[in-house]
Amino acid sequence: MDIETLLSFNWGAMMPEFIILGVLTVLCIIDLLMPAKYSRRSLGWFAIAGVLVAIVSLLSLIPLETTSILYDTFRLDSFAKAFKLVLLFGMLLVLLLAESYRPGEGIEETRGEFYYLFLTALLGTMVMASSGDLITLFVGLELLSVSSYILAGIRKRHLQSNEAAMKYVINGSIATAITLFGMSYLYGLTGTTNLTEMGSMMEQMLNSQFQYLFGVAFFMMLVGFSFKIASAPFHMWAPDVYQGAPTPVTAFLSVISKAAGFIIMLRIIIFLYVEAPGDAVGAFDFMEINHVYIAVLAGVTMVIGNVVALRQSNIKRMLAYSSIAHAGYLLVSIATLGYFTSSIIWFYLVAYMLMNVGAFAIVQHMQEKTGSTEIDSYAGLYKSNPLLAVTMSIFLLSMAGIPGTAGFIGKMYIFIGTFSVNPSNYVLAATLIGTTVISYVYYIGVMKQMFFRPAFEQGNPNRGRIAPSLLIVLSICVLGTIIFGIIPGIALDFLGEFKQFDDFVE
């Protein structure tokens, strides 16, 4: 590629990525050159400012028509813009958690790395959202994965953090290998790694042997993506990693990493498999025949996530199984693929981000004040700190899908989506309702501790102020959860600014 061709590309389409890359590079250099005696806490605000600038940059690109550079390996389309906004805003909240994170030991000497590793992982997710090529997509996936492994074990002298990192890297490496093996089948059959070209070639292949191999590739990649989103039966790593990792990392894995998993899954399915033939005469599309497997995965994930959560006594493990269940709800939308699937998943990820990050903000505060993440440490919270107890209740009720919250609207859209396909999927709809009812037990169990149990003796969560950054997170998350629950049209009208967002699925 000559310099003239290189300069002809519209590099402005990558401006948010360049901003994040520049900020994390500067953070890395400052951290290396700054004397050890100086605190790295100020670097957190620099990272937060960088993400804010990237959000402004992305918003300025919304009117831009679909743009591809580097021979369509990077695409800035409405899909990428909308989901990148979720990723950037979610990372802004996570970085605010990280700035206020003050464990007893094992983080201060790596505080600088803490911030720029988050940005490195964010950069990987943004590249995934704009990938138009399997190679770009895989590079983004690995950038996210390797950074996540390090973040999970960043408290080097903390036994649970070490255990979390070890389990995460072993399971993650196996899942990545399976995903890459599936991708290699697609490349071998089509001779290209470009998603658009690959999709066009797959549409024309009616040979049953080729279709069988396309199916093998699909199921291999589905296994890898299922690990990333923590869906059953590939969820084994999630409870231990969520419990052992630092709380901001847990929030990141449950929101940003999970969102990235669904983004990459949607990219692959929409570009490659929606129009691919499912039989030798092309009478049925691939997804029309094989969506049942995703439906089974969704059903199993909802059941296992909610049923096992009933037995948890640690709130981080309970939220891990809750996260698994929410992955099942989102898989319902993919299993019933329709014209509005992308919009439904986008709205649900926004709602999930607000209620989940908000819940982990309170978990982080309570852990610092009581020294425990057990559910019984929330006993009597309403008497010692009524505002904190009510705030946590709002997030829990949203996760449960109670009317008046963003979580309810998100679940309602998914439920309606099960009837928007032909034939309607009554089994998935019934499973969604049934498992949601089961989830009331463990969400209300936490509320019962806060409102109806005597105070926890090991600490007083009312003692000491809440960090300013945590207050910002809680304020944003509470307001978003309530406003999008009462007036969801605000979010959907904003999504309408992204031209032709739902034109990926017809």
From TrEMBL:
| Mode of membrane association | Multi-pass membrane protein
Q: So where does this one cross the membrane?
A: 18-36, 43-62, 82-101, 113-129, 135-154, 166-190, 210-230, 251-272, 292-311, 318-339, 345-366, 387-414, 426-445, 466-491
GO terms assigned for molecular function: NADH dehydrogenase (quinone) (non-electrogenic) activity; NADH dehydrogenase (ubiquinone) activity; quinone binding
Main site of residence? membrane
Provide the top EC class.
translocase
* Keyword annotations: Cell membrane, Membrane, NAD, Oxidoreductase, Quinone, Translocase, Transmembrane, Transmembrane helix, Transport
Q: Which Pfam families match?
A: Proton_antipo_M (PF00361)
GO CC annotation terms, alphabetical:
plasma membrane
Record's subcellular location: Cell membrane; Membrane
Top-rank taxon: Bacteria
Reactions catalysed according to its record: a quinone + NADH + 5 H(+)(in) = a quinol + NAD(+) + 4 H(+)(out)
- EC number(s): the record gives 7.1.1.-
Instruction: Give an example GO biological process.
Output: ATP synthesis coupled electron transport
Which part of the chain is the NADH:quinone oxidoreductase/Mrp antiporter transmembrane domain? 131-430
* Keyword Mitochondrion annotated: no
The UniProt entry's sequence similarity note says: Belongs to the complex I subunit 2 family.
User: What's its job?
Assistant: NDH-1 shuttles electrons from NADH, via FMN and iron-sulfur (Fe-S) centers, to quinones in the respiratory chain. The immediate electron acceptor for the enzyme in this species is believed to be a menaquinone. Couples the redox reaction to proton translocation (for every two electrons transferred, four hydrogen ions are translocated across the cytoplasmic membrane), and thus conserves the redox energy in a proton gradient.
Q: Which NCBIfam families match?
A: NDH_I_N, PRK05777.2-4
PANTHER family reported for this sequence:
NADH DEHYDROGENASE
Q: How does it assemble?
A: NDH-1 is composed of 14 different subunits. Subunits NuoA, H, J, K, L, M, N constitute the membrane sector of the complex.
Its name, as the record gives it, is NADH-quinone oxidoreductase subunit N
